[in-house]
Amino acid sequence: MNNILILGIDGYIGWPLAMHLASIGHRVSGIDNFARRRNVRSVGSASAIPIADMDERIEVFKRQHGKNITFYEGDILDYEFLADVMKKEHPRTIIHLAEQPSAPFSMIDRPHAVYTQHNNVEGTLNVLYAMKEIVPEAHLVKLGTMGEYGTPNLEIPEGFFEVEYKGRRDVLPFPRQPGSLYHLSKVHDSANCLFACRVWGLCITDIMQGVVYGTRTREITHERLATRFDFDESFGTVINRYCAQAVIGHSLTSYGRGTQRRGFIDLVDSIQCLTIATENPASKGQYRVFNQLDEVYSIMQLARYVADAAKKIGLDVKIDCLPNPRVEKEEHYYSVQHEHLKNLGFKPTRKITETLDIMLKDLLQYRQRIIEKRDAILPKTRWMGEIVSVQPNMPTGVTA
Ligand code: NAD
Ligand code: USQ
User: Fold this and answer.
1) Which of 23, 251, 356, 367 could covalently link to 309 via disulfide, CB atoms 3.0 to 4.6 Å apart?
2) Ligand 1: which of 34, 102, 143, 182 to mutate, judged by most atoms within 8 Å of the beta carbon?
3) Which protein residue has the closest C-alpha to ligand 1 atom 32?
């Protein structure tokens, strides 16, 4: 049995992860300041699937699964609070999910950008200091993101690559070229985590996770155990948004030509991978990077999968190519190494098409809730004042 502290336990991934780890016999505690609930309200939206408050979640989980979860309400920016919880729980593993996770939210304006980077970078620094001072032997599983790397014209390795430059060789961090100020906050975190391992000897697994989708995990055995499901412009991720759009007859909102490609992972597999990382810790002083995804798809390919799944249940869905509100490459090479988790036993649970069928059925029950917030669907946040086509931005003397 491991003693695990989850930072961000009330979130989309945090809550089902907590239930899973507790149900397989780990001692689980968690922290959250409910920022996600507030931030989604602030953009005029709500979770499509109703969610219980934390007290009720814990109570129903205990009734259904016979296990306890301990909860501390508070902000990891409050160092005294974080340090007190660490002293009380003395975790062997800390899983850090407690960040502002939306790229569009971080790009709304200066205050949203400052909030995102302050919350994420300072929060993570507090975690690193609390570990150094209180639990230096603990293993930190830190959620980063595949978007840290951007879309380079090279295969993306797991964190590091061997470079030859002017006749000398070294193994160095792979360059990061993130596409939003949120993704950039994760790059800063990764640099701080690497520093904490190199200089303080902490032990960290930094997970570069693809975009997560899905409504279900094994432990969601009761409607009051559901995890949140957002579909608004900021907090809904693309597959989740497409599914919510499909059930209310809204055209699927592909940005640009839809040829941009990303790595995706089912919620159930995200939890499987985080469990594997937790149960196979990095060693002292090791900074380990895992790329965590099931498959790479183009945004248009996903729209077609969702439209096909919707058709099977009698929903006629159209796909719209909207002007892209983001500054991102639409035509690009994308190939990602993701062997570390497979070598530790990770196997994708099911095909994406099976999950889409489940998601659409789940969401049909909450159609009315999505309709009530449909104004939050279309993108309003633009990366630039006007939409520009992206040109490679090479330093002088370098050609694409
Ligand atoms: P989420 O917003 O649902 O979960 C984060 C939780 O942390 C929320 O409940 C929030 O209230 C809490 N939180 C934020 N700041 C906090 C603070 N200062 N103190 C205490 N609690 C705080 O997001 P999620 O989708 O579950 O993502 C979890 C992590 O995984 C994030 O770090 C995100 O960047 C990363 N990630 C998510 C995805 C995805 O597609 N969902 C993909 C890759 C990486
Ligand atoms: N997109 C559309 N239509 C939409 C929404 C998005 O075409 O309606 C496109 C975007 O332009 C982008 C891609 O889909 O090219 C992915 O967008 P997203 O909103 O699903 O994901 P992203 O902004 O990258 O962020 C999400 C999570 C974030 C996590 C990241 C993993 O919100 O927390 O870090 O996925 S990754 O993308 O691998 O970096």
Assistant:
1) 356
2) 143
3) 97
In 3D, which of 278, 145, 136 has the Cα closest to residue 205?
Answer: 278
Q: Whose CA is nearest to atom 37 of ligand 1?
A: 101
* Active-site annotation, residues: 145, 182, 186
Residue 87 alpha carbon to ligand 2 centre in Å: 37
- Written as six digits, the tokens of 57 are 């979640």
Is residue 49 a contact partner of residue 94, using CB atoms and an 8 Å limit? no
Level-2 CATH architecture, domain 3-219+263-293: 3-Layer(aba) Sandwich (3.40)
CA of 239 to the centre of ligand 2 (A): 9
Q: List the one residue out of 270, 96, 115 whose CA is nearest residue 189.
A: 96
Among 189, 237, 326, which residue has the most ligand 2 atoms within 8 Å of its CB, making it the best to mutate? Answer: 237
8 Å CB contact between 269 and 348: yes
Cα-trace Rg, the chain: 21
Write the DSSP symbol of residue 107: T
Tell me how far the alpha carbon of residue 210 lies from the centroid of ligand 2, in angstroms: 9
DSSP string, 178-190: -SSHHHHHHHHHH
Digitized pLDDT (tens) for each residue of the chain, 400 residues in all: 899 999 999 999 999 999 999 999 999 999 999 999 999 999 999 999 999 999 999 999 999 999 999 999 999 999 999 999 999 999 999 999 999 999 999 999 999 999 999 999 999 999 999 999 999 999 999 999 999 999 999 999 999 999 999 999 999 999 999 999 999 999 999 999 999 999 999 999 999 999 999 999 999 999 999 999 999 999 999 999 999 999 999 999 999 999 999 999 999 999 999 999 999 999 999 999 999 999 999 999 999 999 999 999 999 999 999 999 999 999 999 999 999 999 999 999 999 999 999 999 999 999 999 999 999 999 999 998 554 444 555 544 444 3
Rounded distance, CA 391 to CA 217, Å? 41
Where on the phi/psi map is residue 99: left (φ > 0), alpha (ψ -120 to 50), or beta? beta
